Amino acid sequence: MTAEEDPHQPVGAYVLHALPPNEEAAFERHLDGCPACRREAAELAEAAARLALTPARAAVVPADLLDRVLDEISRTPQEHVLTGLSPGRRKRHLMSWALAASLAAAATFGGIAAWQSVQANDARNQASGLQNALQSGNKALAGVLTAPDATLHTTKLADGASAAVIVSRAADRAAFVAADLPALSSDKVYELWYAAPSGGLRPAGLLPGSGGRSARVLDRPLGQTVAVGITVEPVGGSRQPTTEPLGIIPVGS
Amino acid sequence: MALLSERAEPDGGPGLRAHAVGRTVGRGQARRRNVRTMPSTVYEEEPEPPAGDDADSVEALLVRVADGDKDAFTGVYEALARPVMGLACRILRDPAQAEEVTQEVMVEVWRTACRYRPERGSAKGWVFTLAHRRAVDRVRHAQAAAQRERRAGAVLAGREHDEVAEAVEDDDERRRAQECMARLARMYRVPLALAYYQGLTYVEVAAALSAPAGTVKSRMRTGLRLLRDCLEAR
């Protein structure tokens, strides 16, 4: 393999599902921070999908397949449908996330706001401490932390760590800071997630499994995000959470 | 695009399928539905035939599926199950496995319809992407890389002929996809075809072609860009 002189180069192989797994994961991380690449990937994927039309070989779809599919979907909860909560099975994580996200959306209009502002002072101190501790290079992080419209949203994580999300709707970005994150085994990392109003989740970036203090700007624009979550995932991260969240931080909407 | 102009590329050799596709297209023209009289931009969000108004488009149906509408789901199935099955068959070469993949894809469509965003692309593109991913994952699982590369080698050497379109192409979009693929210069077409239809990674494609991996990777990107330009150009 040649050196990656151009980080966008894998986009063609990516949409063809032709990157080896490690390179695919790496390229998805690149995509996270590269809106132009996401646009290109979407365009090329649309073209690649047309290749499905060129085998004009008559495929015979068994007549009873539709019935079997209909039977299966009658037992398959849809991702955003909360009534699927109890028999969740494979989708249990997503379901509880969906619920959490809608709770988050509801909560931000009500009582939680006061609680948040009490916590905010602590977290803002913590955030500014972190900011000072950072080497001067991280302008993106400083930019979010100091944005004029920045709002602070804090929580305690399930493992006792404290975490805060700083949101700038104007900049369409968010930052995540945490203290006292437990160290993970060497094959695990922390992964952050954006939760949409529908409950859909997007990867928002990784934190090293070394734990302790962490601060970073989240990957990708904030969009309609109503909550930010954190899970433990295998090194390289996951496309969707594979573990229960350690915490979910409502960020308003 | 200058790069596309190699239309008359003398591809008589162990080429993938350009000449065969060309023949098929020729045959199909007599019967093609002549509905594409509008400017080229309409192609971007092409409604599924029978081309109806917006409410009947697969896009509109898929949006309704996200709300749990099973009639809409049946509509999506009827529009797309056959090409999904065709793609899975082509990649897996096994109708029984292709059927399983088709079922899995359709259930995934139901389950994750909320992720589809009409403003970001066609319903067909979204569903075919899911189908391709599943079929490729399965073929990689079922067949060792060496086996897939041997198959690719057979295709390249012309010993195993890639399927030629059998049906008369009365579907305009399908015909256009075939034409655009056939018009791509071989250096771009072959890597796309080996990756898309054989489930090879770019590294495996490079091995099959004895070409540098970086070159193959960059040709995949350029090839798709040219394909897109061609699809949109008419």
TrEMBL record, chain A:
Cell location: Cell membrane; Membrane
Listed Gene3D superfamilies: Anti-sigma factor, zinc-finger domain
Gene Ontology cellular component annotations, sorted alphabetically: plasma membrane
Molecular function, one GO term: sigma factor antagonist activity
Main location: membrane
Protein name: Regulator of SigK
InterPro entries assigned: Anti-sigma-K/W_factor (IPR051474), Anti_sigma_zinc_sf (IPR041916), RskA_C (IPR018764), Znf_put (IPR027383)
Anti-sigma K factor RskA C-terminal domain segment(s): 102-245
Residue ranges annotated for the Putative zinc-finger domain, each copy included: 11-38
Domain of life of the source: Bacteria
A Pfam family it matches: zf-HC2
Bilayer topology term: Single-pass membrane protein
GO biological process annotation, one example: regulation of translation
Keywords, alphabetical: Cell membrane, Membrane, Transcription, Transcription regulation, Transmembrane, Transmembrane helix
Organism lineage: Bacteria, Bacillati, Actinomycetota, Actinomycetes, Kitasatosporales
